[in-house]
Amino acid sequence: MKNALIIINEKGDTSLSKFPLLKELPLEAVRKLSFIFMDEALSEGFPVEKGYSIFLVNFSEKDKNDLSLRYNNFVKQLIVEGKTYPELIKNTVKQIGEYDSYLFVRSNIIPYTETQFNNFFERLETHDMVFGAFDEDEFFILGFNNEIKNIVQSLKEFTEESLETIAVSENLDIYYLPEKAVVTSLESLTELRQKLNNDSGLARKIDNLILEITRYHEDNLE
What we know:
The chain is α/β, with parallel strands linked by helices and 222 residues long. The chain has a single domain, classed as Spore Coat Polysaccharide Biosynthesis Protein SpsA, Chain A (Alpha-Beta Complex), CATH 3.90.550. 42% of the residues lie in helices and 18% in strands. It is built from 8 helices and 7 strands, in the order βαβαβαβαββααβαα. A 7-stranded mixed sheet has the order 3-2-1-4-6-5-7, with helices on both faces. It is globular. The termini are far apart.
Protein backbone atom coordinates (compact mmCIF):
# COMPACT_ATOMS: atom_id res chain seq x y z
CA MET A 1 0.00 0.00 0.00
CA LYS A 2 1.21 3.51 -0.85
CA ASN A 3 0.03 5.81 1.92
CA ALA A 4 0.45 9.55 2.50
CA LEU A 5 0.48 11.16 5.94
CA ILE A 6 -0.09 14.90 5.56
CA ILE A 7 0.52 17.14 8.57
CA ILE A 8 -1.05 20.60 8.29
CA ASN A 9 1.38 23.02 9.92
CA GLU A 10 -0.96 25.14 12.05
CA LYS A 11 0.35 28.38 13.52
CA GLY A 12 -1.55 30.96 15.49
CA ASP A 13 -1.14 33.66 12.86
CA THR A 14 -1.58 31.39 9.84
CA SER A 15 -4.49 29.02 10.29
CA LEU A 16 -7.91 28.47 8.77
CA SER A 17 -9.24 27.26 12.11
CA LYS A 18 -12.17 28.83 13.92
CA PHE A 19 -10.43 27.55 17.06
CA PRO A 20 -7.11 29.42 16.81
CA LEU A 21 -4.38 27.92 18.95
CA LEU A 22 -3.96 29.84 22.22
CA LYS A 23 -5.95 32.83 20.95
CA GLU A 24 -5.76 34.47 24.39
CA LEU A 25 -1.97 34.31 24.61
CA PRO A 26 1.02 36.20 23.15
CA LEU A 27 1.79 35.35 19.54
CA GLU A 28 5.35 34.26 20.36
CA ALA A 29 3.99 31.64 22.77
CA VAL A 30 1.54 30.46 20.11
CA ARG A 31 4.35 30.03 17.60
CA LYS A 32 6.46 28.11 20.10
CA LEU A 33 3.64 25.73 20.97
CA SER A 34 2.82 25.27 17.28
CA PHE A 35 6.44 24.29 16.64
CA ILE A 36 6.51 21.99 19.68
CA PHE A 37 3.41 20.14 18.47
CA MET A 38 4.61 20.00 14.87
CA ASP A 39 8.08 18.75 15.88
CA GLU A 40 6.53 16.17 18.20
CA ALA A 41 4.20 15.02 15.41
CA LEU A 42 7.17 14.42 13.11
CA SER A 43 9.13 12.69 15.88
CA GLU A 44 6.28 10.42 17.02
CA GLY A 45 5.06 9.78 13.50
CA PHE A 46 8.49 9.13 11.98
CA PRO A 47 7.92 6.05 9.78
CA VAL A 48 10.58 3.63 10.99
CA GLU A 49 8.69 0.82 9.26
CA LYS A 50 8.33 2.94 6.09
CA GLY A 51 4.57 2.40 6.18
CA TYR A 52 3.80 5.82 4.71
CA SER A 53 5.29 8.97 3.21
CA ILE A 54 5.15 12.22 5.21
CA PHE A 55 4.26 15.64 3.83
CA LEU A 56 4.24 18.87 5.82
CA VAL A 57 1.76 21.39 4.43
CA ASN A 58 2.54 25.07 5.00
CA PHE A 59 0.25 28.01 4.23
CA SER A 60 3.15 30.15 2.93
CA GLU A 61 6.92 30.16 2.44
CA LYS A 62 7.46 31.97 5.76
CA ASP A 63 5.71 29.15 7.61
CA LYS A 64 8.25 26.54 6.54
CA ASN A 65 10.38 25.19 9.37
CA ASP A 66 14.05 24.32 9.44
CA LEU A 67 13.84 20.58 9.88
CA SER A 68 16.66 18.41 11.16
CA LEU A 69 18.56 16.31 8.62
CA ARG A 70 16.74 13.27 9.97
CA TYR A 71 13.42 14.74 8.84
CA ASN A 72 14.68 16.35 5.64
CA ASN A 73 15.40 12.93 4.17
CA PHE A 74 11.82 11.75 4.70
CA VAL A 75 9.56 14.79 5.03
CA LYS A 76 8.61 16.84 2.01
CA GLN A 77 7.52 20.39 2.81
CA LEU A 78 4.83 21.88 0.59
CA ILE A 79 3.34 25.33 0.11
CA VAL A 80 -0.38 24.88 -0.52
CA GLU A 81 -2.98 27.58 -1.08
CA GLY A 82 -6.55 27.40 0.13
CA LYS A 83 -9.04 29.71 1.80
CA THR A 84 -10.85 26.78 3.43
CA TYR A 85 -9.79 23.34 4.59
CA PRO A 86 -11.62 21.61 1.70
CA GLU A 87 -9.70 23.83 -0.75
CA LEU A 88 -6.43 23.14 1.07
CA ILE A 89 -6.98 19.39 1.03
CA LYS A 90 -8.05 19.35 -2.62
CA ASN A 91 -4.96 21.34 -3.64
CA THR A 92 -2.68 19.16 -1.51
CA VAL A 93 -3.93 15.93 -3.07
CA LYS A 94 -3.44 17.45 -6.51
CA GLN A 95 0.12 18.46 -5.61
CA ILE A 96 1.32 15.17 -4.08
CA GLY A 97 -0.28 12.89 -6.66
CA GLU A 98 -1.71 9.37 -6.45
CA TYR A 99 -1.69 7.39 -3.19
CA ASP A 100 -3.82 4.49 -2.00
CA SER A 101 -4.78 6.42 1.15
CA TYR A 102 -4.49 9.99 2.39
CA LEU A 103 -4.45 10.93 6.08
CA PHE A 104 -4.59 14.63 6.99
CA VAL A 105 -3.71 15.59 10.56
CA ARG A 106 -3.67 19.05 12.12
CA SER A 107 -0.42 19.83 13.92
CA ASN A 108 -2.09 21.62 16.85
CA ILE A 109 -3.10 18.45 18.71
CA ILE A 110 -1.21 16.00 20.90
CA PRO A 111 0.63 13.94 18.27
CA TYR A 112 -0.16 10.37 17.38
CA THR A 113 2.52 7.68 17.21
CA GLU A 114 3.70 5.70 14.20
CA THR A 115 1.73 2.69 15.45
CA GLN A 116 -1.45 4.75 15.67
CA PHE A 117 -0.94 6.19 12.20
CA ASN A 118 -0.43 2.70 10.79
CA ASN A 119 -3.64 1.62 12.55
CA PHE A 120 -5.51 4.47 10.85
CA PHE A 121 -4.18 3.39 7.46
CA GLU A 122 -5.27 -0.17 8.24
CA ARG A 123 -8.74 1.21 9.02
CA LEU A 124 -8.76 2.75 5.55
CA GLU A 125 -8.38 -0.73 4.09
CA THR A 126 -11.77 -1.67 5.58
CA HIS A 127 -13.42 1.78 5.76
CA ASP A 128 -13.80 4.58 3.23
CA MET A 129 -12.91 7.35 5.67
CA VAL A 130 -11.45 8.08 9.11
CA PHE A 131 -12.74 11.23 10.81
CA GLY A 132 -12.13 12.96 14.13
CA ALA A 133 -13.34 16.40 15.21
CA PHE A 134 -12.69 19.04 17.87
CA ASP A 135 -16.45 19.45 17.90
CA GLU A 136 -19.10 18.66 15.30
CA ASP A 137 -17.88 21.42 13.00
CA GLU A 138 -14.11 21.13 12.70
CA PHE A 139 -11.84 18.14 12.06
CA PHE A 140 -8.47 17.32 13.58
CA ILE A 141 -7.94 14.20 11.47
CA LEU A 142 -9.37 13.26 8.09
CA GLY A 143 -8.43 10.15 6.18
CA PHE A 144 -9.82 8.68 2.99
CA ASN A 145 -8.84 6.14 0.39
CA ASN A 146 -8.18 6.86 -3.25
CA GLU A 147 -11.44 5.32 -4.44
CA ILE A 148 -13.50 8.13 -2.89
CA LYS A 149 -11.02 10.94 -3.48
CA ASN A 150 -13.34 12.75 -5.90
CA ILE A 151 -16.26 12.53 -3.46
CA VAL A 152 -14.17 14.05 -0.65
CA GLN A 153 -12.89 16.80 -2.94
CA SER A 154 -16.46 17.75 -3.85
CA LEU A 155 -17.37 18.54 -0.22
CA LYS A 156 -17.66 22.19 0.84
CA GLU A 157 -17.06 21.45 4.51
CA PHE A 158 -15.83 18.64 6.74
CA THR A 159 -18.36 18.36 9.56
CA GLU A 160 -20.07 15.35 11.10
CA GLU A 161 -23.36 16.42 9.51
CA SER A 162 -21.91 16.76 6.00
CA LEU A 163 -20.11 13.42 6.28
CA GLU A 164 -23.19 11.63 7.61
CA THR A 165 -25.16 13.00 4.65
CA ILE A 166 -22.57 11.91 2.09
CA ALA A 167 -22.20 8.52 3.82
CA VAL A 168 -25.88 7.81 3.22
CA SER A 169 -26.03 9.14 -0.35
CA GLU A 170 -22.78 7.45 -1.44
CA ASN A 171 -23.01 4.38 0.82
CA LEU A 172 -19.72 5.14 2.58
CA ASP A 173 -18.36 3.44 5.68
CA ILE A 174 -16.82 6.08 7.99
CA TYR A 175 -14.77 5.33 11.13
CA TYR A 176 -15.32 8.09 13.71
CA LEU A 177 -12.74 8.93 16.37
CA PRO A 178 -13.65 10.43 19.77
CA GLU A 179 -13.65 14.22 19.99
CA LYS A 180 -10.45 15.98 21.07
CA ALA A 181 -10.06 19.20 23.03
CA VAL A 182 -8.18 22.02 21.31
CA VAL A 183 -5.76 24.24 23.21
CA THR A 184 -7.15 27.77 23.14
CA SER A 185 -6.10 29.13 26.54
CA LEU A 186 -3.61 28.75 29.37
CA GLU A 187 -6.23 26.77 31.28
CA SER A 188 -6.73 24.25 28.47
CA LEU A 189 -2.94 24.02 27.95
CA THR A 190 -2.55 23.22 31.66
CA GLU A 191 -5.28 20.56 31.45
CA LEU A 192 -3.52 19.02 28.47
CA ARG A 193 -0.21 19.01 30.38
CA GLN A 194 -1.78 17.18 33.32
CA LYS A 195 -2.61 14.25 31.05
CA LEU A 196 1.02 13.77 29.99
CA ASN A 197 3.68 11.56 31.53
CA ASN A 198 5.90 13.79 33.69
CA ASP A 199 9.03 12.22 32.22
CA SER A 200 8.11 12.92 28.60
CA GLY A 201 9.98 15.49 26.56
CA LEU A 202 6.68 17.05 25.49
CA ALA A 203 5.67 17.56 29.13
CA ARG A 204 8.92 19.36 29.92
CA LYS A 205 8.57 21.62 26.89
CA ILE A 206 5.01 22.54 27.84
CA ASP A 207 6.10 23.18 31.46
CA ASN A 208 8.64 25.71 30.20
CA LEU A 209 6.06 27.35 27.97
CA ILE A 210 3.49 27.59 30.79
CA LEU A 211 6.14 29.27 32.95
CA GLU A 212 6.92 31.72 30.14
CA ILE A 213 3.23 32.54 29.63
CA THR A 214 2.68 32.99 33.37
CA ARG A 215 5.57 35.46 33.52
CA TYR A 216 4.13 37.30 30.53
CA HIS A 217 0.79 37.72 32.32
CA GLU A 218 2.49 38.84 35.53
CA ASP A 219 4.57 41.44 33.67
CA ASN A 220 1.49 42.81 31.90
CA LEU A 221 -0.50 43.08 35.12
CA GLU A 222 2.11 45.28 36.75
